[in-house]
Amino acid sequence: MSEVFVFDHPLIQHKISIIRDKDTGCKEFRELVDEISMLMAYEVTKDMATETVEVETPVAKAQCRRLSGRKLAIIPILRAGLGMVDGILRLIPNAKVGHIGVYRDPETLKPVEYYCKLPFDIGERDIIVLDPMLATGGSAVAAINFIKARGGRNIRLMNLIAAPEGIKAVQDAHPDVDIYVAAQDAYLNEHGYIVPGLGDAGDRLFGTK
Fold it and tell me: Global pTM?
């Protein structure tokens, strides 16, 4: 079974409290999602492989550590996942960015892929799937299915806020995918919203209704 990591860092929790506030405007919401994603990326990538290299400083030669091995791909789930990309890219600017678009068929209620563009070498990369909200888990499960079908293997899921129902759905479908969240909330309401949550992350990021 995969692990769930809930971040309790004071800076992350402070910023989460602000994006939960219904009075937080679009500009500030977008900036905070970006900042939270960057802070979370430190923890999500803490076990990336490094190698020792020799660097010549202005004073002497030094033995230093640099990233080695497989490279990183970040895959936002459209559209809300886009709000988490730039914060990670500021830390790891060489990461490749793929995109996955998923919608729910109104008749079958099953997730349908409408867009998928991944790095050609996705099977050789460490992968972080991004989506601010993990509610039912349907989109995340489907997105991970699509990535695996194209050769992706070493996958992690990063969410700002998650419901227990979504966590269980991902763990049941993908027990090899660890989940990283800034907050784990109580439950989903009858409309599929996380409670207390923060509403629709996509609408709040992009100023739509």
Answer: 0.92
* 150 tagged catalytic: no
Which one is catalytic: 104, 150, 153, 156? 104
Alpha-carbon distances, residue 183 vs 63, 72, 91, 143, 154 (angstroms): 38, 24, 22, 21, 23
Q: Where are the beta strands (DSSP E) in the chain?
A: 4-6, 50-56, 61-67, 71-78, 96-97, 99-104, 111-117, 125-130, 133-134, 155-162, 178-184, 187-188, 194-195
Catalytic, 108? Answer yes
Q: Is 172 a catalytic residue?
A: no
Quick: pLDDT tens for 91-124: 999 999 999 998 877 677 677 889 999 999 999 9
Is residue 65 among the annotated active site residues?
Answer: no
How is residue 68 written in tokens? 């080695």
Q: For residue 97, give the 3-state DSSP assignment.
A: strand
Q: Which of 47, 57, 105, 108 is catalytic?
A: 108
Q: Is the peptide bond before 196 cis (omega within 30 degrees of 0)?
A: yes
Per-residue pLDDT tens digits for 26-50: 999 999 999 999 999 999 999 888 8
